Amino acid sequence: MSDPLPGGSLPGEHSRLYRIGVMLLNGYGYNWYRRENQMRADDLLIRSRASEHLEKAAVRLRDLESRYRRKYLLPPTRERPDPEPQAVAGARRFRVLMERVLEIDTGLRGAAVPPEDKIWQRHRSELDALERLTQCDAILVAGAKELDDLITRVPADAALDSETEQNIDRYLGELAAVLTQRAELLAIRP
């Protein structure tokens, strides 16, 4: 087998082969090991964890709604052709909360990421903005986990009590506020 390197030694910094190797390692201008790039990857990872918690909460609410419907919304009979309005309202509350959780999840998944361009960097310190963004994302994960834990504690086959519904509402409001704060952090203002 012939030696792939001319002269049998590694190329120097001024060699074309060395420059190509550096470009390949750096991803043609994208250095995976820079702190900013690690923080961008962490942002995606943290948001995916928060989204997983929100998905679990939505699935649990869907399950609670179906159990509630099976128990309280009986098939119509001749004597009672229409379901009880209170039972319908109870099932609707589960559905509305589930849709709100999914709305927050969609906003989280579709949230903007910091661009890596010169104009964005000219208007702010990239590392500082990424650190504040990571803090927002950590709050999102914690809030989503607490929301998931709260919904997990809701008893099956029962209606939502007003205190639990208010707590869920509070968590959803806090998550929406953090998403808004996160979007404002990435907005460029003159």
Structure notes:
This protein folds into two domains: 1-30, no CATH class; 35-186, no CATH class. The model has no long low-confidence stretch (mean pLDDT 83). It is built from six helices and no strands. Helix 2 (35-72) packs antiparallel against helix 3 (85-109), helix 3 runs parallel beside helix 6 (162-186) and helix 5 (126-152) packs antiparallel against helix 6. The chain is elongated and about 90 Å long. The protein is mainly alpha-helical.
| Average pLDDT figure | 83
Task: Provide the gyration radius in Å.
Answer: 26 Å
How many alpha or pi helices?
6
Sheet with most strands: none
Strand content: under 5%
Number of domains: 2
Helix content: 55-70%
What topology does this entry show?
Layout: H1 16-25, H2 35-72, H3 85-109, H4 118-123, H5 126-152, H6 162-186
Helix pairs in contact: 2-3, 2-5, 3-6, 5-6
Briefly, what is this?
By secondary structure, the protein is mainly alpha-helical. The protein is built from six helices and no strands.
What attributes does this structure have?
6 helices, 0% strand, single chain, 190 residues, mainly alpha
